[in-house]
Every structure is written in C-alpha cells, then in structure tokens.
Design goal:
Radius of gyration: 19 Å
Strand content: 35-45%
Structural class: alpha+beta
Oligomer: single chain
CATH class of the largest domain: Mainly Beta
Number of helices: 9
Number of domains: 2
Shape: globular
CATH topology of the largest domain: Tumour Suppressor Smad4
Largest sheet: 10 strands, antiparallel
Number of strands: 16
Length: 310
C-alpha cells in the first residue's frame, strides 16, 4: 500500500528514534513517504495532497491536534486515516483501541493494514471545522487555552499541568457566576444558561493518566452526536461531574445542573459574550455563535481488527 507518514516532531512523546523505528517498520511491507509538519494547518494540506496523489493511507504520528488537521484534509476522499499516539493524551488513538505507546501501536496498525481493517465513520463539525471526538465550548476551551500558553509544560508535566490549569482557570480566568450562552438543540430544546457544552462524536471525553473520563457513554462514530451542557459552574457541580466521569456510567447522573442529549444531528450555540472553543484539544479562539453538525460516513479510518464500539 502507498502510505504517507505525517510526523509532528514537536509532539510530547515523539523522538527521532521513535520516528525512525516506525518509518522502518511501515516500510517493510509498504511504500512509505515520511514528512514533518512545520506549522499549524500543515498536516491538513499534506493529507489533502496525499489524497489527491492517490495515497491509500495517511498515518499520523503526533497528538490529537495534528490528527484532527489530517482528518480535515481527508474528509470526502477515499484515502484512509490512521493514528499513532505521539501526544500527551492521545484521546482518539486510545478510543479506537490502540496502545498508548507509538511503537506498540505500530504493530497493531500493521495488523490492521494487513487485514484491510478500515471503517467509514462519521464526524462532527463546528462552524465548518471537522472534529474526530469532540468540540468544547466555554470553560473547557478556556482551560485548553491556558495549557497552550505554556506548551512546554504540557510536554514535561503532562496531566498535572492540565489539572493545575483547570483550577487556575476556574479561580482566575473564567466567569463562573454568569451564564455564557444558550444551546438550541435540533429537537427544539433550548438550554439558556450554559457555561460549558461538549459535543461528542466518541466517548470518553479525555483521559487522566490511565483513567478514562466518560461523560457520554452512548457517543460513537456510527451515530449522531451526544451533547452535554453544564448549567452551573459551581465548584461542587464541576467536581461532581468529574468524579462521576472517572467512575464511568452515567456522568450526568440525576443532577439538575447537567443536561445530556444523545443522537443530535445538529445544534446551535448563541453566546451572550465572546466565548472560547476548542476542537479535539486544539484551541480555536473566541466566537459568539456556533453551528454544530453531524456528518455520517465521511472518513475512512484504519482501526485495530479487534476494535468494537466505535
């Protein structure tokens, strides 16, 4: 098969040795070209060019942001996307059943390529930008923005840096007293006091170390989106959600402050002031309106042969 290996050399767990080992392993049975990303948006252009040039698979060694860019370059094409974990969290690679080690994951990828284990999956989009696993509007995007301000700490400190950023954002950098937006679901439901909304294409929402934070257990790549909205950002409400998410099961619980709606084809978010948003863990800035849609069967995805529940 003809493969393009896209490498983000600045990703948290990518080293020259890992890059070389993986390239050699893939090249043993396939025609492989290796390219490095050099700026934001580069992976999208590389993937689109690969699809136009007849590549069978674009393999991404990097974090979730690089993987998202490549997916945006491949939507609607017949070139498949394959993930190798190279970032600090690697939400999507782990969600589809890959080990959280790039070299081990390469073995699983080679087995999938040998068996032609490819699924056509659906994606979500927000204001025209596709996402693989989720878009966050409000508080969680503010946390991502704080993390990215000191990206070098993300590489060395990992999840403790995320936790510290979440606490400092809550205390100092996000208004948790006044609602930020209204969520208009496709069935006509309106939630007019939103502080945080997550639109999920998969579950879990993220990982904290080895533990998954499951907030929408019915979200999967073969059905429309799940939408979770926090109607209060009081510390007890937020910590309660995290605690239930770590335990798995029903993260929404019976809290009057958490709304969870599954199987949403579309929704809009109308902000009362400019609010932050992030896509697949990448901060995209402030906006006052958001249009979110589900797009069924728009991307070919290489998955481990044993993967299920996607």
């Amino acid at each position: 098969m003809k493969l393009l290996l896209v490498v983000n050399a600045t990703a948290s767990s990518v080293t020259a040795r890992v890059r070389t080992v993986i390239a050699k392993a893939l090249a043993a049975d396939h025609d492989v070209e290796v390219v490095d990303t050099n700026q934001r948006g580069h992976a999208s252009r590389l993937a689109a060019d690969a699809a136009a040039g007849g590549a069978d698979v674009v393999v991404v060694l990097g974090g979730d942001g690089t993987l998202n860019e490549a997916a945006n370059g491949l939507v609607g094409s017949s070139t498949a996307l394959a993930a190798l974990p190279g970032g600090s969290t690697n939400v999507f690679a782990r969600t589809v059943g890959l080990p959280n080690d790039a070299v081990e994951a390469t073995g699983a990828l080679l087995a999938a390529l040998e068996e032609r284990s490819v699924q056509r999956v659906g994606l979500g989009s927000v204001n025209g930008r596709y996402f693989l696993f989720h878009v966050g509007i409000g508080f969680d995007a503010a946390v991502v923005e704080r993390v990215e301000r000191r990206s070098h700490l993300k590489r060395v400190a990992g999840h403790p840096w995320f936790a510290w950023s979440a606490l400092t954002t809550w205390f100092r950098h996000y208004d948790h007293r006044v609602a930020a937006f209204a969520v208009h679901l496709g069935d006509g439901t309106v939630i007019d006091d939103g502080y945080l909304t997550l639109c999920l294409n998969t579950d879990p929402y993220t990982y904290f170390g080895p533990r998954a934070l499951s907030v929408a257990p019915h979200a999967s790549l073969d059905r429309p989106l799940s939408v979770l909205t926090l109607r209060s950002l009081r510390l007890g409400v937020a910590l309660g959600l995290v605690a239930r998410a770590l335990r798995g099961g029903d993260a929404a619980g019976h809290s009057r402050w958490v709304e969870l709606a599954d199987n949403q084809e579309s929704l809009t978010v109308a902000a009362y002031r400019p609010v932050p948003h992030q896509v697949d863990g990448e901060y995209l800035g402030l906006a006052e309106s958001f249009t979110v849609r589900h797009h069924p069967e728009v991307l070919d995805l290489v998955v481990p042969p044993s993967a299920d529940g996607l």
